[in-house]
Every structure is written in structure tokens, then in C-alpha cells.
């Protein structure tokens, strides 16, 4: 499917008049792909173009997240073969993680999303603790998380897996998908709406690119075979934005070996522990050996797993450490 044949949906700049006044006459476009310092954009005429950021953006940028990312709306000047990006429209949602290594910088995965599909397959990839990590990042992004349980044909006890998911994801929709059996991709197809932006995230091999290929009715994202216990692993190497023929916007992402926290909503992800904590005898209860701990009582009664509590502690500790590192970096930059 040719991207130029798709229905294009754009934002109304009138909603951002305060920040776009000095850029009157510039053209609106959306970032559909990034390769280092080169950006691929699509404008209102469905034309793909190459672009770089302006010198002003480079001069004013302090960290990587100050640069455009896939999903961003930008204002550009098109007087040359390579367009110049002069302004990034205020982001309505940001999906991000901590960059790999010792840095405390955030790495933007995608922006201006309405829904984030968290893909997890029913084989060895099924992991509730990893799902809790993904949910905490998604809730923080201001987009709506939706769980997609893929490759359901590989499961002999689907009802048990669904029950486990529901225990850690109250209020989150769960969709089923399979390339080989019903409901196939019908749940996902019925979820897509014109003008809405969707992102698929998850580990390598869970079937994200197979789903994207189906939704786009084209083999845009390649998959590779990885063995008898799985049906294919995608080879996506960069984030890319696509438009479906019905006007929905889809962003596929490379498989994530790890998702380190930069911003996360721990309270919303571990809603049950937060609610139980209100009934603890002590307001500063650590849920360890304190008397009158409602959380430990729930574990003793089988209403809460010890693994969930341990992951709650782990993610809280990781997020606090990341915030401390970011604060130290901020102080260091101010001294320069």
C-alpha cells in the first residue's frame, strides 16, 4: 500500500495559536520516521519529504527529547530539497523510556498517541512483571494502554492467562489476536478509529509487525522465523509511522530488550496496593514487618501475590533513583 494513497488526518493549528504565531506561513507536517539527524515527514498533501532541524532548535536543545520524534507535529520551511524543521508543536502525549547506559536522559519512543497497544504473546514471553513495567510507563504517557495478547493459538489454557492479566490490569482493555485462529485480528481492527494514533510496543517476536502488516494490508514490516515455539520475530530496526486506508495512524517500534523507567505512574499501575495501603495501621507503612499492615494481610489471604508487591517496590526504587540522577544532572547543567 502506498502511503500517498491513504487518508490523511491533520490537527487544527488554531488550537495551538499561542505557540505558532511567530511561524505564520510555515507548513504543517508530521514526523513519520527518524534516522539519526534526518527526518522523514508527511505534509497535508500526502507528500513525503526529507528534513533536518533548524540551527535554532539545535542551539536551544539541551537533551535528546528536545528534538523531534516520530509522531511529532512540526512546522517546516520547504524552500529547498531538504526541508527545515523550525518548531515542534506541543506534545499531547509522550511515550518514553530511560536511554540505555549510565545516562539519565529520556529516549522518546513516540509522541501524540491516543492508544498504546502492549503486545505480549501466550508462550514464553508471557510475563506479568514485565507487563506491570509497561503499564506504568504507558499510564504516565497520557495515552490509553490496551493489552494485546498475541499468538493465542499457542496456548492450551487461555482462560487462565486472561484471569492472570485481569488481576494486574484493572480498567485496561484486553484484546486477543492470532494469525492462525479466531478472532484473528478482528478485535484490533474494531478498535481503530479515523484520526487516532496508535503505537505497538513489546518484546521482539511477539507479533507486532505481523499485526501491522495485516492492518496496513501490506508486507511493510518484515518478519523472520525464530524456531518451533514461535511463529516469527520482526526485524523492525526503527520507529515508523503509517496511515491505514481508513485514516488510523499506526506506529510500529523495534522489540525492546529492556524498558528502563524515565517517567512512570506507579500508583495507577499498582492501584490495588495503593488502595490497601490506606487501610494500614501506620501511614508510612513499608509493608514489611509492621503490625496492622493491610498489604501483608492481603498476601496472607491470597488476594495479592508477593511477586506483585516485590515488583511494586522494585519499580518505585528504580524510579526514585532515576529522578535523583536527573536532579543531579539538572544542578550540574545550571552550574555551567
Characterization of the model:
The protein is of the alpha/beta class and 336 residues long. It folds into three domains: 3-90, OB fold (Dihydrolipoamide Acetyltransferase, E2P), CATH 2.40.50; 95-252, Rossmann fold (3-Layer(aba) Sandwich), CATH 3.40.50; 266-335, Probable gtpase engc, domain 3 (Ribonucleotide Reductase Protein R1, domain 1), CATH 1.10.40.50. Helix content is 29%, strand content 23%. It contains ten helices and 15 strands. It has helices at residues 17-20, 55-60, 128-141, 158-168, 186-191, 208-216, 266-269, 271-277, 294-300, 306-335; strands at 27-35, 38-43, 48-53, 73-77, 83-88, 94-98, 106-111, 115-121, 144-150, 174-176, 197-202, 223-224, 233-234, 240-243, 249-252. The strands form four sheets. It has a six-stranded mixed beta sheet with strand order 10-9-8-11-15-14, sandwiched between helices. A five-stranded mixed barrel has the order 1-2-3-5-4. It has a two-stranded antiparallel ribbon with strand order 6-7. A hairpin with a 2-residue loop joins β1 (27-35) and β2 (38-43). The longest helix is centred in the last third of the chain and has 30 residues, at 306-335. The radius of gyration is 22 Å and the shape is globular. It starts with 16 loop residues before the first helix and ends with a helix.
